[in-house]
Amino acid sequence: MTHTNPHTTVVIGAGLSGLATARALTERGCPVTILEARADVAQPWRSRHPALRLNIHRKFAGLPGQAAPKGDGVYLRRDTVVEHIERYAATLDAPIHFGVTVTGISRAAEGWRVDTETGPYRAANVVIATGRDSSPHIPDWPGCQDFAGELIHARDLGDVSRFDGKRVLLVGAGNSGTDALNHLARHRPTEVLVSVRYGPAVVPQRIFGYPLHGLARVFAALPTWILDPAFRLTERLFLGNLRRLGLSTHPEGGGTRLLRDGVTFAIDDGFVAALKARRFRIVPRVDRMLGETVILADGSAVTPDVVIAATGYRTGLEPLLGHLGVLDDQGRPQRPMGERDPSNPGLWFTGFKPIFTGYFDAAGLAANRIAAAIAEEPGRARAVGTFAAPDDRAVTDTTFLAGANPH
Ligand SMILES: Cc1cc2nc3c(=O)[nH]c(=O)nc-3n(C[C@H](O)[C@H](O)[C@H](O)COP(=O)(O)OP(=O)(O)OC[C@H]3O[C@@H](n4cnc5c(N)ncnc54)[C@H](O)[C@@H]3O)c2cc1C
Question: Cα separation of 121 and 118, whole Å?
């Protein structure tokens, strides 16, 4: 399909979600400018720990127009993911303005104004692709500022061998927490305590050698009333009774938690065996910290060398667009995957909803949804030509304004 309409879109974020949407737009003839705070594409993936692999099957790790590389087997390595995204960006026919941090988004007379540290941009459409894991979150435990040990977020895990010989307290056993535990299980920390309120829904990485995530489309087609018991049954059959190991069951099932609450299920690749072997031990949740001691909810005290807070992320979107009423009480967009918002025409989100097949597949779905909607709205494109730049120059599109920026 050929489109020549002068639609103008600013995409914020040059991760896989932003790049996929930019590509879908350029393929429809819609002009796009991408703003990226960092100096490179795929920056979050570059800074994740070096042993990380995708937990999704390779067949779901393709991006629109580019299949996932095959060299790593089923689960892509971190560095392969970075190369995959770099290659994707290199074939994109749209400018990426690196080192441009967006600081605010507001409605303009027509369309949107995007404020950055290097000057404003204006556009008919703004696509927010800044990532669901933008800001690491550590609870404000009383006394944590003065904790004598090391307190890090799971984002800063680094090379896991550095925990050899150390007493580790890992807080939270969601997706990032269990990934860290899977890696710790292959190393030699002196002690690993796992502080959790509820155990996650856990599935084995492989069943009889078959990578379970290969069936993600089948799971995606099932209603939660089947999925929730299916998660419990799979866990029980292939991993055993995790309650006996101290992991209490969340009142909601794994399907409901993913689809309704956006909480990804955990994949076991060694941590359950470590729990069974008593190398890892479940402890109550953290209450407070006192010098080198961590006091747990049951009043007991532990003295870890390192506390790893696998306590999740925030989107960091409130300061940018909290005033628009488009976020939920957790700061996540209410329309997370390219859905049209009649109250805020031209404002789009992608990369904020986990789905069974993973974020790559979700990025492709949202990209097509957003690009198709933008491409069929000529009225919004015409409006762009009437915007005034901050210094009252008449501008015709974002590229003109962007040209005023050095990036
Ligand atoms: C440890 C870990 C492991 C994961 N493993 C998997 C996995 O196996 N499979 C899977 O599908 N997903 C996984 N994820 C989820 C992962 O975040 C996504 O796969 C993917 O990175 C999302 O891409 P994105 O483009 O939406 O966001 P990101 O990759 O986070 O990219 C967002 C971009 O926006 C930029 N940006 C942010 N704020 C601004 C701003 N104000 N102005 C300008 N630019 C800005 C950032 O610099 C960044 O480049 C994992 C996440 C974590 C934390």
Answer: 10
